[in-house]
Amino acid sequence: GGLNWGIVIASVVAILLVRRSGMFPIVIAPPIVYSLGSGGMLYIRSGGLHDRRVLFDGAANWLVYGFTAIAIATACVLIIAGIRLLAHR
């Protein structure tokens, strides 16, 4: 739950704080950051790469249940970036 809320809040704060010229990396970051964060958490919780089947099952589980957070974070970032681009014109 914390990772899901964190990715949404951090994405919104980042897109609000970045300059207009630097918005592209922030727009594409939520899925990448979530995947790396959930992979790291899964690696730590599973005790390493001893049983890859369990690791892959857990990673698929994280991504399936984290899709909502990824989608919300990406949508918020895209909406805010669009508003900022249109407001500057």
Kindly describe this structure.
The protein has 89 residues and is mainly α. Helices cover 87% and strands 0% of the residues. The chain contains 3 helices and no strands. The chain has helices spanning 2-17, 23-46, 52-88.
Number of helices: 3
Main sheet makeup:
none
**Helix/strand order, N-terminal first:** HHH
- Give the averaged pLDDT, no decimals: 86
Short description:
The chain has 89 residues and is mainly α. The chain has helices at 2-17, 23-46, 52-88.
Which descriptors would you attach to this protein?
mainly alpha; 3 helices; 89 residues
Summarize the SSE layout with pairings.
Layout: H1 2-17, H2 23-46, H3 52-88
Helix pairs in contact: 1-2, 1-3, 2-3
